[in-house]
Amino acid sequence: MKGVIKAICISERKGTRKHPVPCAVLKENHGILGDAHAGTNHRQVSLLANESVDKMRVKGVELNAGDFAENILTEGIDLKSLPVGTQLKIGEAELEVTQIGKKCHNDCEIRRLTGECVMPTEGIFAKVLQGGQLRPGDRIKIKGETDEID
Known about the structure:
single chain, 150 residues, mainly beta, M1 Pyruvate Kinase, Domain 3, 7-stranded mixed beta barrel, 3-stranded antiparallel β-sheet, globular
């Protein structure tokens, strides 16, 4: 199963919305350089599928990349079905899935507007095994799966 990076987002401070950037550098066992949520914990990078965001958009909410505080917005890969321990090759970097979903915080603006939020059930978190540069358009591949002919 292959996917692609649709957007890369960071925030300089915790508690603020993330905003898209044209490229990012992932540092091994740290996360995205310049992102407030990077560190040596198991949730160094957050990923969310654009297909999940589309479920919220049909409810009439205008949503942009980073509005769910995701670092990497993907397309074409079913993130929520990946088990913990799955390794991903993304651009030059390699990540390992460490957590599926998270508890939505009480003041989640999207949950207030729509009554639900997809990040708690469909977002995933990963740690960086090998650093590298990422750009929108870079391919995402599950390590160990054979390459398919495009």
